[in-house]
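Example 369, ligand magnesium ion.
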Amino acid sequence: MPRDLIVLPGEGIGPEVIRQALRVIDWFGARRGLDLTVREEAYGVAAYRRHGGIVADAVRADLVSADAVLFGATGGPAFEEIPPEVRRAGSLLAIRREMGVFANLRPIVGYAELADASALKPEVMAGVDLVVVRELNGGLYFGEPRGIADLPDGGRRGLNTLTYATWEIERIARAAFTLARGRAGRLCSVDKSNVLETGRLWRDVVSRIGAEAYPDVRLSHILVDNCAMQLAREPGQFDVLLADNMFGDILSDIGGAVSGSLGMLPSASLAAPDADGHRAALYEPVHGSAPDIAGKGIANPLGAILSVGLMLRHSLGREEDAALLERAVRRALAGGARTPDIRAPNRPALSTEGMGDAVIAALAETASG
Ligand code: IPM
Ligand code: MG
């Protein structure tokens, strides 16, 4: 039975990078027997003009039941024409929540091949291989009450609520422990337990889940400010990092500096499996819409392409193909393939499509040994 994928290229550089990701999917279809029905749908201003929503209701209802959703990017100047309530209703955040994808995996790899593009010293970044597991459905992003209120003194007051219940911490902790178990077996949990009650609860619950169910995983805890420093100083010390929604957002961007560019980072956002074993899943490059370079054909498609790799691994059960794609990306980089964001000194940079060509060529070479 073919599996079904919904593709939402979105806006800004989204469509450009997704185009290259789709070429990679086609390659796996033609050469490795990947049987995937691809349905492309509008997301953003185009969808708003046609349907009055950022994403059509009929599409939205199917995001949860699809085997996977591949998302490009959202946002940009054109968004201004969409009324704020429509924007909020169809926002990426609303979709993440509606799909129930609470476990956000953001792998961060320090490619030795990209040492010259990284802000870190070669010996600090090379060989880094960690995953930030970010809680994606709760915390400060969704807590109520929230808003901006007028004050009697003529000023205003902004309010957001940071809240985590035991069950929310438990399920993301289990996801992170399970991932660590399949890797180097080390989990470092991030919090601000020296100041925040949510952080104290976070630490308690993660410790308990570890002791009860994952005694084989080596668990440590780190305060978020120290973690930020350690990520810049010695990222190689981490295997799996577990963080709440806000901290995970911030820390994963530091990963962009380790890899050389935010354009390198893929992500997978996974829901809990339902009674039939089906699990909603959203795959997206971490970079966002980058309106300043949109339409120029120079965006780095590797974040989107590597997101296809995560989809092969986490939704389609094709670990071998995922590993093949990751090796091919490495090979393309080793061969000097560079978009401007990871440009090497004195070497011409490739276009988005050129990088797609390089990955396809490397796939063919890697597959044949
Ligand atoms: C991310 C982005 C989003 C987030 C924005 C675009 C809402 O920064 O995926 O990291 O904060 O989650
Ligand atoms: Mg972010």
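Summary: The mean pLDDT is 95.
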